[in-house]
Design brief:
Number of strands of chain B: 12
CATH architecture of the largest domain in chain B: Beta Barrel
Largest sheet of chain A: 2 strands, antiparallel
Helix content of chain B: 25-40%
Oligomer: heterodimer
Shape of chain B: globular
Number of helices of chain B: 7
CATH class of chain A: Mainly Alpha
Strand content of chain B: 15-25%
Structural class of chain B: alpha+beta
CATH superfamily of the largest domain in chain B: Rod shape-determining protein MreC, domain 1
Number of domains of chain B: 2
Strand order of the largest sheet of chain B: 1-2-5-4-3-12
Number of domains of chain A: 1
Structural class of chain A: mainly alpha
Distance between the termini of chain A: 18 Å
Shape of chain A: globular
Order of helices and strands of chain A: HEHHHHHHE
Chain lengths: 173, 347
Amino acid sequence: MARASLSREGIEVHRFSWLVSIAVPLFALFLQASVPLRFPSFAIFDLPLLVTIFFAVARRNQIVGTVTGCVIGLAQDSLTHQPIGLFGIAKTFVGYAASSIGVRIDVENPGSRLIMTFAFYLLHGAIYQVVARSMAQLPVEWNWGSALGAAFANAFLAVILFFLLDRFKQRAR
Amino acid sequence: MENFFIRYRNETVLVAILFAQVIGLATQVRVPKPGAEPGQSSRLIRVWAVNMVTPFQKLFVYTGSGLRSVFSNYIDLRNVREQNQELQKQLDQIRLEKASLQQEVDQARRLQALLDFKQTYIAKTLAAQVIGTSGTDLSRVIYIDRGTNDGVAAGMAVITPDGIVGKVSRADRRTSQVLLISDPSSGAGVLLERQRLNGVLKGSASGVPVIQNVMIGENIEVGDSVITTGGDRVFPKGLKVGTVTHVAPDPEHDPFLAIKVKPAADLSRLEEVLVVTELGERLPAVAEEEKPRTASEMLAQRLPSVKKKVEEAPAAGSTARPQATPQKPATNPTPAKPTPPPEERPQ
């Protein structure tokens, strides 16, 4: 408890209105499911993951980050034909890890956001692969080239997206 | 103990949520009971999520289609006369080709009749608009704007005039999920048209469908055409699947080839599809038409007033001679061609 209090000193904690908390993840899911119809290469992005990272880092609360990742991941699972829980587990981890990092360091500048999103994208992919292979016995492939490329693309998009989403932040303390 | 949970509250919540999801996942991936519908345990959460997203998707797609049709209608009208003349020429050419092919079709039907061969044909289709995807390449599914209210059910084939697309994996009331042939969990019975070789088309993680179960040593070439066999009881026989793009030994299944196929339908840019809501099965028309008939039956058909007399005096029927060729059947359903008429169009 003392550790958490110390780590939060000097770092802003934000909150969001309930409308933003619901509408932004829902809009991200909608875009993720709709845009690849016209632009198939858009599927390289993972907007629900970026939204999970953003909310988790901004709120700097590990429980809220964990729950946010879980809910967004399960909703994303529901749109696939695969067992529900694959994206849920991966995003639960990412939500927890992102909020843990948010507690300790300042991740407001574009450089740290770029690196953080790049790392979380790879972590998310790795957890998904492990769960999909070991538990669901799904034939998933891991290609380092495409994984790194997608991580870079998502990291660059995150810098822009987070800048836009910053407008919805409300200072909590 | 209480202090432990308070001190490690965050970690406890994380573990609890992960544990719940792992249990839920294990429940879904267990071997289903015979006759049980797959995915039943997670149906509610799927319905909620789909119902939250699909209304916006429909609005997005319909608005986009409306705007595009306004522009495209204007542009189309500009060259319509030249296009009309060109199409008329093509139609004349097709009519000539059709006439020359008709004889071969008749002969094939006679041979099929001899073998008591039943044809599967598309009896009814339903046009549907593609409104969304899963949003990830890890699950190659699309969503269409037709569901159980429109007669769609799980397991129905989904096609376009270009070729097969996939099958309905889940049908809700107003929308349905379609599993594409490029997904690793999909499968279809296919035939290499030139060699008359049967195989199984499976999707792959990379999204390129692959034909399995074809032995090394078969003469398969790039560009060979692939059609459906109808053996999978999902897709009717003879629909276009695609063309062979790559042939190599399958490293995971040693004596077999891995034949990559480019789907005939552009799976990445689907806009409208047809759901095969009803399949029919019948003997070829010629078989029914040319079964042996006696002269008295033929006479009775052409001259109903004579019927009674013929029946009363069968011995005298030998004097009655048929004067004309047998009558053609009135209707002839299209056998396994991907050209079904769209009964309903999405508005």
